[in-house]
């Protein structure tokens, strides 16, 4: 640049003014940048923000409609005491969480609530520019390209036993068979009413006799259909199964746009379609699941590869939940993808899905853990923990479940998963497992070193989890793990027996004199959850102690008495009162999990034998992958000639 001397101004004077101007301009541009940056911190509702930021970056994520159904699972197991809204608690008058919590009142039905997406916008920018890995580049154009290479017959020949057993698991004992038939009738009743009043919607509202869509699955529909496919099939409800299959064929629209919970879509839709395929061999299910799996991949485009919680299935844009501190991702969400994604790679012969979840695994394995525990919130940008809240219930639960199940599903070859599971369990025992004054064993929650003596209904799955992992623990620990599993299951059963309805509350406590009872009004509801029954089923298979079948039958009777209404099954708002108030929601997991686990509890062990199958966290059975057998040429020849 050429500086011309101005009259009456010395060279040094001019230089001084110029540098003053330069500093001023620098200051001005800094100010503008700051103001623009500050826009990100304004609530999404502020107009200025909407004007200056593009729609995709600030679009609020619609999750957890005011109706209780949604709040549910996307946030799986929220807790109202927590400052984030995973809450699905039906309490009224909790203003802090009002817009985020489950609201079971029929009169509130239809109130759509929106959680502003607390996305880290800078993260989005970073993630978009993240270079792809070599294998990603190699495969990113067609993730389902090799999906026709999976040999179903060969897969079947590698199973140790027929999936449906000798006689579809029919028990020899007539009383048990009668009980099993009752559960089958419950499934038919739930299904028929869904079909009649809510066909194609996500759930049935049994009191108002209509369908519920909610916002957890983006534009996807038919959650109850996808969640029911395998249950109908194993129960031999073939007419119903065929209707469901026909709907998948003609109406499951995977091109629908909308913000969905990555976790929920994965455990229900991906899990449900995978199971349906493995059980039936119907190519339709495979094609659908591969198409869907591909749509989930952009969620992993973050600086660390840890996916965010919400994804727009149309555009591939993803966000963190608005309530998750500092744009963090949730352990139970990004840690509950492994089983399904490994199977997607199996079916497509494309390693990308497995790579995505192995990357999560590696990061979690490497990162420093407070007292060996895994906190529930992690930044997808820095890969660091964001808060030190640890829970085996909401926000954490199925991460631990997927560690041991990954090991089992790998035909016990996934040693990292094994090592991580047992060391996590050790840390849990050392820090969270407690004995109440009344002698009940429970899992407390941990908040930066301080124990909250509360156990969520969701945490009751851990009886079954510790049970199925017992056998592969250190030899001197095996009996101990089985005992621990039985104790936890016993405690969860106590939480049922101590209520008037004999159904368990959403959370129960062990402080201020409480022993496995809810002390807060807002924890008293029951939304047809499966976790306690899930543990009965596993403990029955592992021990054959008849008490587990008796406990399961108690639950059937309580469900029939308090949750069956004229047009389906409904959750209830207070398990401690006999004059029940229904929440008007038949959750899809009632069909996929609660009734399936009850049916299996009253069936012979050869129906979906644990030697061949692991259940995903929505109770969809996925086969153990026997690579040795699958790659064996002799088996190949055998199947080809079949
Ligand atoms: C289900 O969707 C799954 O079991 C999930 O892991 C947790 N919660 C519900 C049922 O309670």
Quick synopsis:
By secondary structure, the chain is mostly helical. Helix content is 46%, strand content 8%.
Considering the chains and any ligands shown, give keywords for the structure.
642 residues; mainly alpha; Glycosyltransferase; three-stranded antiparallel beta sheet; globular; disordered N terminus; binds 1-deoxymannojirimycin; calcium
Strand composition percent:
5-15%
Q: Which CATH architecture?
A: Alpha/alpha barrel
Q: Output the CATH topology.
A: Glycosyltransferase
Q: What is the oligomeric state here?
A: single chain
Q: How is the main sheet built?
A: 3 strands, antiparallel
- Classified by CATH, the class is Mainly Alpha
The ligands bound in this entry are: 1-deoxymannojirimycin
- Cα separation of the termini: 82 Å
Structure summary, number of beta strands: 19
- Helix residue percentage: 40-55%
* Class by SSE composition: mainly alpha
- CA radius of gyration is 26 Å
Domains, number: 1
Q: Walk across the major sheet and give the strand order.
A: 3-4-5
Average pLDDT works out at 82
Low-confidence stretches: 1-16, 35-145
Q: How many separate helices? A: 24
